[in-house]
Amino acid sequence: MPQSKSRKARRRRRASKQDGFKRLRAQLKEGPFHDHKFVIAPGGEVKMSEVLGAFIEPYIDLADTIEAYRRLLTVAVAAWNIALAPKAEQQKMLDEIAAAGIPADDVESHTVFREMVTMLIARKKQYFAAYTRNIIAFEVTDIGDSYHLVVASTLENDPI
User: Fold this and answer.
1) Cβ neighbours of residue 117 under 8 Å, at least 6 residues apart?
2) Which of 2, 9, 51, 99 has its CA 20 to 30 A from that of 126?
């Protein structure tokens, strides 16, 4: 008996999600945290993918492609982690991230980036202050009708 279209679609989405987990694991093993232990979806912990999704919710309309969604997430993760840093280190972190990702002569992009990060830091502090986990990496997979987000983070009270 042939499988229904919805069953095939569910299988494809499940396989895409698993691919996202695999890519994130590979990214972590090759990155600066390769010597740290990590778990995905640890029991009893809030899923940071859900928290990050709620964090960027007001800006989601800015992301009309998967690449735009990834850029939004990249800026959001930078702001999130800056907000968790000691106040004295936040400006230095912002300067380093801006310098690494935006050409020095692109004044407009630097301005937009800094404004967006500043807004997101304020949002983090106002609405998400209870979440103190640093975000280490994320992976996005297009699953057809939406995107699937997988996030790797530190555990509570376990700084980077």
Assistant:
1) 75, 78, 79, 82, 94, 97
2) 99
**Cα Dmax for the chain:** 65
pTM reported for the whole predicted model: 0.79
Could you tell me the CA-to-CA distances from 71 to 3, 41, 54, 81, 130 in Å, in that order?
A: 37, 24, 16, 16, 25
- Burial class, 33, CB count within 10 angstroms (exposed 0-12 / middle 13-18 / buried 19+): middle
If 0-12 CB within 10 Å is exposed, 13-18 middle and 19+ buried, where does residue 125 land? exposed
Cα dihedral angle (94, 98, 99, 101), rounded to 10 degrees? 140
Q: pLDDT tens digit string along 25-68?
A: 666 566 555 666 665 666 778 899 999 999 999 999 999 999 99
Residue 11: partners with Cβ closer than 8 Å, 6 or more residues away? 3
DSSP one-letter code for 4: P
